Amino acid sequence: MDKTTGINRTNTSNPSQSKNQSNPTNEASSKEKKPVLSSKLDGLLDKTDDLLKREKAWKNDNLSNEAKDSFQKTANLIKTKTSDSQVSAAKRKAFSESEQVSKQQREKFGELLELAPLSVLKEITEVKNFSILNPTELNEVLFTENAFAIFKNTDEGKLFAANLLSAINKKLSEMEPGDKGLALVLRFPSCYNNIGHIALASIWRDPEGKLKLSICHQESVIPHIKNNGDGKPQKIESYTGIIYNTLDTSAQYPNNISPVIESMKLCGPPSVLVFPCPYPENLEKYTAMMKDTVFDYGAADPWRMPDDKKISKNLPFQTCFNVTQRSLAVLYGFPINYKSTLAGNFDELSKFAGVKEKITEKYVISKNEFVSREEMKNLIEEAKKNPASRNKRYENVIGVGFVQVGENWIDPENADVKGTTQSKKGRVTIQPGSTTFSLPNEAVKFKFATENKLLENLKINDPHNKLVIKDKVYSLDDLKNMQLKAISNKPFVFDYVYTIKNSGNPNQVLISKAKL
């Protein structure tokens, strides 16, 4: 049993059975050998160990011959690879069978979305068995990533690296035969406004034993003007979800900020959950394949109105949660299914993400309105069957529920590497006739959560930093230099998020030395 998750992994005593799954006797035998699921993770794991069932489903579906051929080849490869005696004891599925995208979506995007995770195994990378880490080699790969490099030689960075090293080496004792590395689930508080963020990394050793760090990170990119390099700027009118192989997206993100880096400047390095896995090397190839795809970003599928011309009609909605689910499945060497976040993969991923218990028992829609978990699921199911049922209230319910989850799911204590810094939401009003404002005395650093239209009225009296940008972290010295461009005859209200001075946590680094 995996001591971390309580998962009873399947142990294939006769590896040759996996190579002959077209035999009905073997199929029946496979069904009898279902892994026993922990009630804690019920629904997270696939309840069968039968690739043939999945293969038949795809053959009978409306896919192109090329797609069917691709699936056949990769399914056979997985059967061969997972029947290898060295990995048979680690043969398990990380995620349950889940709802598929529509036939129309599969025809146009299914091959990439669902077959691609299998195709990353076409080239089997040799991976050396994972041995105990020393501080030097972990620091070398950790601080090579730009997002972590801002903490190099700081108190926060040293504390984070030491805690991560300890967590990783502790997990080595929990590895089972076939595990070649570890999955690192990274959680960033107050990344977008006060909404938390999640990303995945894997750590493993190449054939020479050199430590490798791979990252799969989905960014929620705000509407912006995109420069395509052809002299014709493109207006991106809706939020999009884009996959990157780095946490530092400042080169591509509007206003040249990286939301993850700004989150770490405000709250310190992320909290981390660590899980042994058999195929940590697959993350690098999967991310490389998916990083140029652009999805519409949204809480549920469907979410937006049917007549919304700002979104693509044939792509499912994407969030950091369902990207983390898909890429986690890749680390376990099995195909995955697309599932949207609300009433979809959020519950399934919750234990891998360290989500607080019962966080989505009910959604607070307004002062006098609550929507239960089942009601939320029913709303979305009805919207799938009947697009006409989608209205402004539907969008509002899903959107408000999504924000509620986003603001509350991270528990910095519920992790192998705990978070160190707390943040709070606040609101300030600049009264008519005034141009300046102040923050609570307990504030150390802050960022605005107000949309840019209001922020355009603010300026910084500093020749090196004149723009005031949402989600960019500012110091109290910056605050002294901020003011409205002109005295106004109406109040200006700004929402913000700030780091507090003292949380009672003895490990908390009170004043970040990360460069602003």
What's the total helix number? 15
Structural class of the helices, strands and pairings? alpha+beta
What is the CA-atom radius of gyration, in angstroms?
A: 24 Å
Basic shape: globular
Report the average pLDDT across residues. 74
How large is the share of residues in beta strands? Answer: 15-25%
Count of individual beta strands: 17
The description of the largest β-sheet is:
7 strands, mixed
State the low-pLDDT regions, or none: 1-62, 77-122, 502-513
Termini gap: 45 Å
Helix content: 25-40%
Strand order within the widest beta sheet: 7-1-2-3-6-8-9
Question: What does it look like?
Answer:
The chain has 516 residues and is an alpha+beta fold. It is built from 15 helices and 17 strands. The strands form 5 sheets. It has a 7-stranded mixed beta sheet, sandwiched between helices. A 4-stranded antiparallel beta sheet has the order 12-17-13-15. α2 (51-59) runs antiparallel to α3 (65-82), α3 (65-82) packs parallel to α4 and α9 (282-290) packs across α10. The longest helix has 18 residues, at 65-82. Mean pLDDT is 74; it is low at 1-62, 77-122 and 502-513.
